[in-house]
């Protein structure tokens, strides 16, 4: 037997051995964290199958950032970044050191998708298309030979301290060495995030911190809200009150919906609002002119009214408020709309000032999971190793993304969680 032939035989046998001993990994959930972890673990040499309940990958990713996909935030200081997640933020330190904001940008740009920074340090694809972000991730899976199983929902997980197999609703069983769960929370259930996985995780022994909608609109009962639907507010201050005490406040942009308020500052404070609501009756106050004190605003109004002394009250607020808001403010003030401004009393003017500096609405609830951008709550972080994303309860289970009790404000922070935790889970699968 000649040497070249023996060499070829050895190569073939080695390839068979590598294939036989290749670690089998099952990733559950085809969102951003799932695709990142599946691609990374396959890149590291694992035989990976990605299980997704929808008929396509990245369904929720496609609607993020109103279809533009706010990939991450340009905050490169890990400490500042983790502070955005509150007390749970320290969990992210290790993951961010392994796969940072800069790494996320490099990941996409090295694959041909340029990015740009917009107001609020939000980073978007240069094309303004979330579909392009998804295509990069899908190519990453193809490049690393990840098998994708669509229309496949997990019915049960067999095992206790170690997962033996998963069973799909169609009866198919999948056996792997390691499992990564990246199924998200309960927000936007039409995208497949119905929270069913949490019951299965409980059965495995994990504690689940109470799930609640986050980054979600606020519902108010006042009838005039419907009249203001679609009105965008810029540079306003919105504060939350309970028992005549200010609890929290935000400055920025908001928008009236048909049932309440939404927009950046409303979404960012919604988690805290939900917690405050549990303590009792809660109010929201809007300061339409936060740059002016009440005294300064009063002088401004009097100056305006001196300019058009004989004007009716209903025609005197054009330079002060958006047109859509004027009829509502007039009605709430109880000032005769046809009254001449030079006849308006000091007390009536004080009532107007209060409306402009502290328009009060009651908060009856937050909108539901179907309107929430993310879910607060999830797998208790003390049960997950932050350096590897490996479960401390189930030996061959990793967890990444929104399934964890980790959520931040709008602006790309939550997708950064998905990229970082997904990468770390995938990178540690063979360790």
Descriptive overview:
With 431 residues, the protein is α+β, with helices and mostly antiparallel strands. It has 2 domains: 22-210 and 376-427, 3-Layer(bba) Sandwich (FAD/NAD(P)-binding domain), CATH 3.50.50.60; 217-367, Helicase, Ruva Protein, domain 3 (Orthogonal Bundle), CATH 1.10.8. The protein is built from 13 helices and 20 strands. A 7-stranded antiparallel sheet has the order 17-16-13-14-15-12-18. Mean pLDDT is 92; it is low at 14-20.
| Overall tally of domains | 2
Average pLDDT number: 92
Q: Percent range for helical residues?
A: 25-40%
Q: Identify the strand order in the major beta sheet.
A: 17-16-13-14-15-12-18
> Based on DSSP secondary structure assignment, what is the total number of beta strands?
20
CA-atom Rg in angstroms:
27 Å
What's the number of helices?
A: 13
| SS-derived structural category | alpha+beta
Oligomer: single chain
CATH superfamily of the largest domain: FAD/NAD(P)-binding domain
CATH topology of the largest domain: FAD/NAD(P)-binding domain
What is the approximate shape? elongated
